[in-house]
């Protein structure tokens, strides 16, 4: 069994991956920054691999005669493979790390951005650049707040857990299966029902997976339904929020502020008005960073990869299987 690792795992993690793959397997690491289909070294390595750990270009996976049987992603989102015209190669297995790897670190980002907006920290940071000592007025408290979290999986549950320590009045999760037990939520509702809760929502968090019914979900109409003075944070998919509509609503002062770690498109064009909107905080898709960002997240990704390698060797069903 030949395993190709194309992400920058540290050597101690690589040692564990080699152990999980077994002594009769070959494990090679080839890290290519921003891998592209025309990268000769990557193409040659993939053409000799049974298993790839990482995110190889889809075009390479469609190469004729490719021996790859299984791709183990180190991301949660699979859009690069599943939301395409060509689709993921038939007969090849795809697994990801959704539901286990990113909740801890991304929930910290979400809470951090909520606090930055409610305590005017973004405004004060801008004010510091002009050496201005000006009280910007009332803060917003999370005590007694109604929170609506779109996406009640691992990330949403971690967000709910952390926000519960702020004495929020009610934390509601939005998901497809409202009967499945999901800790830290006071209530679970469907996407259709959630719209009726927006006028009472002080804080809205988007960490929902990509789906046709959620594209541009937060259009002008729904953004205006959010309780006046509310906060919006989006870390799920950029196309969940209409950027132009959000800029208009923020400029009119209907929302206290918004934080976006994902945009549509990415990167956000330099001439987009949200860059200059003082009520909007923008980061370059880093809330779920693992390699060179979060050792804890990298450790959890390694655990998932090793567990699946052992399952593969034993002929057992793989965890986190997408297709």
- β-strand number: 12
Biggest sheet details: 7 strands, parallel
* Helix-strand makeup class: alpha/beta
For the biggest β-sheet, the strand order reads 8-7-6-9-10-11-12
N-to-C CA distance: 21 Å
> Helix proportion of residues, in percent?
25-40%
Mean pLDDT: 95
Parts with pLDDT < 50 across at least 5 consecutive residues = none
In short:
The protein is an alpha/beta fold and 323 residues long. The protein contains eleven helices and twelve strands. The chain has a seven-stranded parallel sheet with strand order 8-7-6-9-10-11-12, with helices on both faces. A five-stranded parallel sheet has the order 2-1-3-4-5, with helices on one face.
Outline the secondary-structure elements:
Layout: E1 2-5, H1 11-21, E2 26-29, H2 40-46, E3 51-53, H3 58-61, E4 70-72, H4 79-82, E5 93-95, H5 103-118, H6 121-128, E6 146-150, H7 154-163, E7 170-174, E8 187-189, H8 191-194, E9 203-206, H9 220-225, E10 230-234, H10 243-251, E11 255-260, E12 280-282, H11 295-314
Parallel strand pairs: 1-2, 1-3, 3-4, 4-5, 6-7, 6-9, 7-8, 9-10, 10-11, 11-12
Helix pairs in contact: 1-11, 5-7
